[in-house]
Amino acid sequence: MKGTSPDVEVHSSQEPWWRRGVIYQIYPRSFQDSNGDGIGDIRGIIDRLDYLVWLGIDAVWISPIFFSPMADFGYDIADYRKIDPLFGTLTDFDQLIEAAHRRGIRILLDYVPNHSSDRHQWFLEARSSRDNPRRDFYIWRDAAPDGGPPNNWQSEFGGSAWELDAATGQYYYHAFLKEQPDLNWRNPEVRREMYDVLRFWLDRGVDGFRVDVMWHLIKDAEFRDNPQNPDWTEDMPPHKSVLSIYSCDQEEVHDVVSEMRAVLDEYGGDRLLIGEIYLPIARLVAYYGRDLRGAHLPFNFRLIEAQWDARHIERQIVEYEAALPEGGWPNWVLSNHDKPRIASRVGRDQARVAAMMLLTLRGTPTIYYGDEIGMNDAPIPPERVQDPFELRVPGRGFGRDPQRTPMQWDNTVNAGFSTGSPWLPLAPDKDSFNVEAERSDPHSMLSLYRRLIAFRRENDALNLGRYASVEADSCVLAYLRETENDRYLIALNLGPEPAVLETPGQCRIVISTEGKAEGEIVEKKLHLQGNEGVLAEMMS
Ligand code: GLC
Questions:
Q1: CA-to-CA dists, residue 522 to 233, 243, 475, 479, angstroms
Q2: First to last CA, the chain
Q3: What is the chain's mean pLDDT, rounded?
Q4: Separation CA 299–CA 110 (nearest Å)
Q5: Which of 33, 212, 372, 387 is catalytic?
Q6: pLDDT, tens digit, for every residue of 253-284?
């Protein structure tokens, strides 16, 4: 086996690293440009590794960096084993692995198995004739009797999910763009090829994968029509007008996931498998797999989708905790490259409370790059729109460019992201909200993130400890994290008005998102300012 291992302390408790660890998502186009072409790259990431060490990150998940025509900015891969020249070379990548591991940081890649690019060699061959040996690598169907698409399945980016290939007279299925034909995971040869792709990167030393749209991999064998969604309204994305019960989340997908997991396990027990899955809790937790032989972490997007209301969120936490299979490890996410940023959804003041929530709930947190400095979704003028979703369904607020703008490092040109012309505009408040400005300010969002990460790392109650709800009024969310030896109370005011929490005993304030009263002993009543979160050590 090639590749270096991370230079990290092995915990005596034998807990897998990702239970204590904090994951950081890098959208590589927007993190750091090193060659002045306005697009972030691998060398840029290497240059910023020391920042991630300083922040206290354990692992980085990098959105796709593979050879791609970029119809969906790398989620359309034309060669799974090649780095796209925009991002660098395989040599750069090997150096990234080496440089990250030397610093104790693990590297997780984005694995996009559901679909390839329509320029992938397999698809070029598949579409060349009906009897090409690669034909069955993709999903082909005859037209419906009326000559239209084979069924009513919808593309997530709008319109039918079927594209007619005039030359061979059949439709192919694409859950996303027509430039992203879905691979046929019922074909064992596809599985073999795609598992070898995993091995290719594992051999180079990667520490795991985030699997793109894991719940899409297997489709109904009979291609039945999806039922209409009676709750669909005009403000929802078009594809939600049908319930994707036949196009997604089929029972057989769990065999595929466990096979992927088995490939990772060939490389020792600590390679991590994360699944991107947007499903209700009961369906989501099935992706841990039978006997936990599935994904280690099926991404939990409750906090991305939740309305920001204390009682609602508490219910989500409790339901999620209760639904986890025995031994299944939880995880939490506030933002990602597909959804509006947390600071834009709840406001910057409340985003501090959200940070405390993310880093004190039971489960592995994933931080989206820039959230730690309070980045907002940036306004994108119509002529600079890049996202294919926005281009296809314009003006409805579905576009994903606003949350993908360049990282704000300092107040030099382009916030230190690039000396060239950035592929997306920078946020207008970049001079106030950037790493350099916030690093030296003990009250900044960045300082808060760093403190919380460090505290979480040092205290088993916070990383591995149990979760227990604490009764609280209206806008306060309160819970305990505890081991046999330590107990911490987390009290989060999700509203702008002051609030009081009856504490379960005497406690000492350790961290306040408002920086006030730290060290103070609270006997019974904890007074919270509006938008304040408090982490306190229980003393009785
Ligand atoms: C996932 C990715 C998203 C991409 C889609 C198609 O949802 O996160 O960015 O557009 O899959 O690959």
A1: 48, 50, 20, 16
A2: 51
A3: 96
A4: 13
A5: 212
A6: 999 999 999 999 999 889 999 999 999 999 99
Q: State which H helix or E strand residue 356 sits in.
A: helix 348-360
Report which DSSP code applies to 225: P
In angstroms, rounded to a whole number, what is the distance separating the alpha carbons of residues 244 and 229?
9
Kindly report, residue by residue over 332-370, the tens digit of the pLDDT: 999 999 999 999 999 999 999 999 999 999 999 999 999
* Coil vs helix vs strand at 325: coil
Q: Residue 432's CB: how many other CB atoms inside 10 A?
A: 14
Q: Which residues pair with 5 in a beta bridge?
A: none
Cβ(298)–Cβ(258) below 8 Å = no
Amino acid at 148: G
Residues with CB under 6 A from ligand 1: 72, 75, 112, 176, 212-213, 276, 337-338
Taking alpha carbons only, the member of 94, 4, 111, 110 closest to residue 62 is 110
The residue whose CA is least distant from atom 3 of ligand 1 is 338
Is the CB of residue 72 less than 8 Å from the CB of residue 338? no
Residue nearest to atom 12 of ligand 1 (CA): 75
Q: Is the distance from CB of 219 to CB of 114 less than 8 angstroms?
A: no
How many helices (H) and strands (E) the chain has is answered by 16, 21
Q: How far apart are alpha carbons 194 and 416 in whole angstroms? A: 38
Find the catalytic residue in 58, 110, 276, 514. Answer: 276
DSSP state letters, 472-538: --TTEEEEEEE-SS-EEEEEEE-SSS-EEEE-SS-EEEEEETT--STT-EESSEEEE-TT-EEEEEE
Q: Decide if 254 contacts 215 (C-beta within 8 A).
A: no
| Segment 16-20 long-range contacts (CB within 8 Å, at least 24 positions apart) | 16/269, 16/270, 16/272, 16/296, 17/58, 17/59, 17/106, 17/270, 18/58, 18/59, 18/208, 18/272, 18/296, 18/297, 18/329, 18/364, 19/329, 19/364, 19/463, 19/464, 20/58, 20/457, 20/463, 20/464
Residue 211 is classified by DSSP as E
Biggest distance spanned by C-alpha atoms of the chain: 77
Rounded to the nearest whole angstrom, what is the distance from the C-alpha of residue 30 to the centroid of ligand 1? 16
Q: Is 84 a catalytic residue?
A: no
**Given the structure tokens 């089929």, which residue do they identify?**
250
- pTM of the model as a whole: 0.97
Q: Based on the residue annotation, tell me whether 212 is a catalytic residue of this protein.
A: yes
| Count of residues in the chain | 540
